[in-house]
Amino acid sequence: MASSSRKPSRNDNKRALVYALQFNNPYDVALKDKEDKMIVISKARAKLLRVFKTLETEADRNIIPQKAQDQLWWLKWDLHPNDIKKKRISKKMFFIGILSTVLHTIKNELGIHYELLLSRDKDELFCKLYVTESWLIKRAYETDYLLRFRHKKEKWTRSFQEFSPYGPFSLQSKYINTKKILFSQYDSKHLLTNSGGSYFTFNDKVRLISDAIYCKMDLYVLKNYGIMIDAFPLHDNLTLDYLKSEWATMKAFFIPQPLTEIKNYYSEQIAFYFAWMGVYATFMGICSVVGFVVFIILIISSYLKHEGIYTATQVFFCLFLALWGSFFDQFWTRRERELAWQWGTANMTFKEHQREKFEGKFQKDEVTGKMKVLMRESEKRNIKKTVSFVVIAFLIIVVIAMVIAIFRLRVLMKSTDDLKDYGSIVPALIYAIQISIFDLIYSKVSVWLNNLENHETMNIYNNSLAFKLFLFRFINSYCGLFYIAFIKMYQSSDQCTENGCMYDLGFQLSIIFITNMILNIIELGLPWFLYKFRVRWEERRIKQLNEMNANIRKELYQVETESKYEPYENPIEDYMEMALQFGFVALFGSSFPLLPILALIEILIEIRVDSWKLCNITRRPEPVQSESIGIWKNIIVFIAYFGAVTNSGIVVFTSGALNNFSYSTRVLIFIIIEHAFVFGIATVSYLTPDCSKVVRKGITWCERVTHNKTLGKLIDDSIKLEKRDSLDATFRFYFNKNDIRYQEE
């Protein structure tokens, strides 16, 4: 093609399977009622126009494919107004008309190849989307898509030049009349190659094809109309098999994670999560070693009755945990920046579409001149946020009341002879279970509140949801532990055991932690059971259909199998679980020195289980670009600072080390220690650069290279992208049963 500088490759026209659209089958015999139900033409026109992001009053005739205007009589612009208002068509005709228009647009307007497959039970259609290298090149030019420059080993020899910068693909036009290739190329395994590869990783292909479809049509509207079921990227078996064998297995328990491969196959967002988990596991390993040594010293000193050594060891572990949390945050900040540099996302501006469920008035945006959903002027955002605050406050009050009731139950059981022996374990178990139950309830409530607030983009939505979840779960998970650590010692009716409040705190903490581990293991199996349930339900239906028709296909298509998997939306719950675990260790770990070992085991298992879920029982997620872990870094920083305050309090009030001092003196000592910790952490954070000198130079160099190449781009009006044919003359507009394949693959 005219815009490519390299030699034509036989792979340019080789089709790569990238994406799938899942529709309800309009020819399904179980949907005969659609033939009887009618829809007014005005509504049918409005719905079709809305799919293509326009309205009857704003309609640009070029938006709707000319072929659709010619073939759909009810869509013709010269149709009499009375016919539009009064005449009706069947829902089946409407269904087929929209689906035919969508397929025509994909094939002839966007130039994307597709193949229609019928599901085994014949109630769904799968539209497999294929793209060629030439299509991807054309689309990348049109959108100024950012790709990584080819690395110049002979010129870029400095340490900060190890990773090539990214730049808009249109820069390749500077070398239109040369054989020079400006950007990196990848082989079938998405690894860098010197020649004969593709400019695009699989994630690039998914982003380009989904963006092309989104710019033309609104898939969420198709879902609302009951025409489309879902849309999702498809797995690449070659790369997936590698990740299954080298990453998503217990055999790789202590092997470093292939972060670059994870980034290339899934996304930067997911790779950042697993990178953070890896750093977290390393620091928890350090904490586990120290905790184990502390535990041994405590056992020996307790046996030898050396109270001074026992207390001093507890105080040391408190101080260690206060600093440990801060060092973890500092180390991760530098590692995060380093990865953003390596992956080319540092300081990158990411393109975000409107959230599918964002509600408002669909109209022309005066700024961009494009049709989009705009916030209604009557939208009472502040009122909705107030409602959220009131609901959250109410639930927090309920949680505190539940905790008080549980500890009152403990007092009651302790004072009853028949129940005295169970006075510790039963309330502790009830409290641990109560935490899990309220977490589950609030997860549903927080999603409802977040939807009520009507956030426009997914990033804002996720940040708001994460904040709500953490605020509630922080109080739900820790308020009982704060009571034991700092209030219980002053309650005459609920005194600590003879071993002290540190023992009670450690006992409650261990019960909560072990209960959470058991519940998490049960929860991790839920996606697998849901997948098995869908398959079983499908097999039962197939058995019924086989009794009526022996020609039912026995095996599922690969795309059909993937459609049964649970969708993977984002790692919010995964982050939340680990952030709370970090809080248990950083805030109260001094009361149970073996807790870091349990936490480390859970982290290592969580990494493998999460990776196994991604590779085996969830759909391939949409690739989301990112330069950090987002709001979760702020949450980790908050926990680290709060851990300094909590551990200062445990040293002064709970450990018993300063019991010889008066209460007012202890308060003064607490304020001094706490301020010293917070000031020290803040000073270290301020003086420690967020990234190394090499990374800082590397980011600056990448930006300069891209800027210089952009300024030096040769603009030649004679260079034109070849115009895509608007219509394939052999393409029939209406699709029918003969266009749908049902045979075995």
UniProtKB/TrEMBL annotation:
The residue ranges of the Anoctamin transmembrane domain are 262-698
List where the protein spans the membrane.
Answer: 270-303, 309-328, 386-409, 429-449, 470-487, 507-531, 635-655, 667-687
Q: Which InterPro entries match?
A: Anoctamin, Anoctamin_TM
Q: Which GO terms describe its cellular component?
A: membrane
What are the protein's GO molecular function terms?
chloride channel activity
PANTHER family tied to this protein: ANOCTAMIN
Q: What is this protein called?
A: Anoctamin transmembrane domain-containing protein
Naturally occurring in which organism (per UniProt): Stentor coeruleus
